[in-house]
Design goal:
Elements lengths: L6 H21 L5 H28 L1
């Protein structure tokens, strides 16, 4: 499967934006750093599940 053009650039932008959001949460809103790490881990797990199940659906079509 070939990635669509611009996908890598969009992913890089999402990573930079997410890093900025984490900095704001920790520095401005005084969220404990461990809470940010926990939310990131759970979020990545959920996104992985969504991608896995959506990929299987595309293979069946």
């Amino acid at each position: 499967m070939v990635a669509k053009p611009g996908t890598g650039l969009m992913m890089a932008g999402a990573i930079v934006a997410f890093s900025g959001l984490c900095i704001v949460l920790v520095e401005v809103l005084r969220v404990p750093p461990y809470a940010v790490l926990l939310v990131v881990g759970v979020g990545m797990f959920v996104l992985g599940l969504i991608r896995r199940f959506s990929r299987e659906d595309r293979d069946r079509i």
